[in-house]
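Why should sequence recovery work at all? Because a backbone constrains its sequence more than one might expect. Tight turns favour small or flexible residues, buried strands favour hydrophobic ones, and helices have their own preferences. The token representation captures these environments compactly. In the example below, the structure is given first.
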């Protein structure tokens, strides 16, 4: 999937997409680049059974991919792949290890191990995981229960 806008100086080239951002909250609707409307792109989840008092924000990975301009593919066996052309991340449902450019990387949320999860037919990860790998900025507003992602 090619992203970006045509370069008027050379119609054969595509300029990088303009910086994007989105503030997401629990239960909201998010309209993707393709016009799909996704519901509940953020939810609170206890990702670590050793510390059930720890709750973190999980985001729908398709939403993060759109905000960051990533190519993505979902495989029927509970896997999802995201790439910016330089870095490729493969997530597996119920696994706390992602493959980043072929190397295993632990999925972490505030210093604790966390799993990628499929919930309600949607893939979710801790909010900061993909943004950290792809160099985006993320901020949390605990009072408003929002996650803001800036690319």
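From this structural description, the recovered sequence reads:
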């Amino acid at each position: 999937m090619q992203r970006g806008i045509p370069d008027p100086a050379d119609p054969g080239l595509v300029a990088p997409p303009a910086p994007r951002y989105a503030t997401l909250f629990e239960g909201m609707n998010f309209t993707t680049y393709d016009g799909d409307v996704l519901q509940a792109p953020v939810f609170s989840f206890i990702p670590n059974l050793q510390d059930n008092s720890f709750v973190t924000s999980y985001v729908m990975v398709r939403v993060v991919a759109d905000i960051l301009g990533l190519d993505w593919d979902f495989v029927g066996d509970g896997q999802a792949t995201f790439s910016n052309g330089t870095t490729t991340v493969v997530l597996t449902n119920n696994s706390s290890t992602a493959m980043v450019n072929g190397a295993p990387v632990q999925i972490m949320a505030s210093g604790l191990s966390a799993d990628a999860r499929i919930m309600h037919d949607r893939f979710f990860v801790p909010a900061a995981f993909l943004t950290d790998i792809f160099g985006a900025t993320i901020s949390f507003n605990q009072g408003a229960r929002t996650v803001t992602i800036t690319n």
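A few observations help interpret the result. The chain has one domain: 19-150.
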